[in-house]
Amino acid sequence: MSSTTRTIPLMRKPAARTASGTKTACIRTFGCQMNVHDSDRIRRMIQDAGYAEVQRYEDADLVILNTCYVRENAVDRVKGHLGELGRLRREGRVKRVALTGCIGAAEESATLQRTYDIDLVLGTHNTYELAEFVGLPTMRETYTPELPGTEGEHSTFVTIMTGCNYQCSYCIVPTVRGRMICRPMGSVIGEVERLVAGSTGYVTLLGQTVDAWRHEGKRFCDLLEAVSESAPRVWFTTSHPSNMEDRTLRAMGERDTIVKRLHLPVQSGSDRMLKVMHRGYKAERYRRKIEVFREAVPDGTLSTDIIVGHPGETEEDHEQTLELVEDCSFDSAYIFKFSPRRGTEAATLPGAVPDAVVQRRFLEVLRQIEQNAFRRNRRKVGDVEEIYIRHGSAEDGKAIGETWSGHAVHVNTDVAPGNYVRARIESAGPHVLYAGEPSR
Length: 440
Ligand code: 5AD
Ligand code: SF4
Known about the structure:
Distance between the termini: 47 Å
Radius of gyration: 23 Å
Bound molecules: 5'-deoxyadenosine, iron/sulfur cluster
Number of strands: 22
């Protein structure tokens, strides 16, 4: 699909300034990695406009809330922040507030803008309009994923597609992010090569359904293979079971530079619920995919997303989810309580599940996931692993790293993020592994 370019008119708006003359801005990011990535773009715009980034609202002339709309509590959290910002603005400490991201693209944003007197509300396709708002004289940008990721970082997200062509009953993403647009292969590879020539050692290919990527006869696996030849370490998220090809799973097992972690959201183990959700596959097909993955990538890790309490979910449906969780033996999972999003089909469906039932089902799924994960993690004890350091050591001297199998590891080292250490796994919890002293 082609990209659309919009030109922002030449116009300079007065931007806020502090007494010292330096304009300051604070960016808060809520939600998924897509939003983290968008915040990087926003960050560069405000830097170009001469703003210094600050961490506290009270130090900021301009506050940008880059928001998530996927679940109800995300909106509640943002409302809390908007209330606090209203107070700071009345005290003259914060001057302007902008709301961007998925809430900005949703219907509810007009009400929020009125209630909290927000200066600028932008959706996900027009974040470039922020340029004008922060006083950049001109800005020309595409709204497609042609935009580069963060450079100069050891670990970088590279967007390969935006939007989503599915219509899952509960999901607001197709409404707020639009239909799928795939970034051309040459553009992705070009960016990856540029990043790797800089300081990037870890590239994550990003999109709502990355495995649905296709462009000029090429499919996701072709792109992944090409990237895995250019980058020293590669991962991708998120995938959709209907698009996941066996050859991609085999490539994960065969190629040394791909992190052997598959995130494949299943949402439910009940065929009836999968149909209501419009997921487009049955539980059996998902199980078969996982069998292929476990065989192709025996030392790999598997994670998923599960929604409990979708309208109409019966006790039998829930039991089937528990069975699937047992069969697939996930290494980790994100479990969500259903949250109605205005504008989605599920928000209007009958058969609401009482809160107490949702809570019990949530805990049952969680317990089962944790038991399996703990059992699997314990098998790693004794292995010597090469660990990529993601976050440097905290006060306790422990850094957080990742093995090639995709396990999170706490390791005692002061090496900087982006480097590797070798260490033996000494113990395991349900969520992370603990390594001993690194040998280098
Ligand atoms: N309610 C609960 N969970 C949801 N998700 C998306 N929309 C909703 C909703 N309305 C979950 C899905 C998805 C993940 C990113 O968030 O599990 O895979
Ligand atoms: Fe939402 Fe994912 Fe379904 Fe797309 S595939 S509608 S992003 S849950």
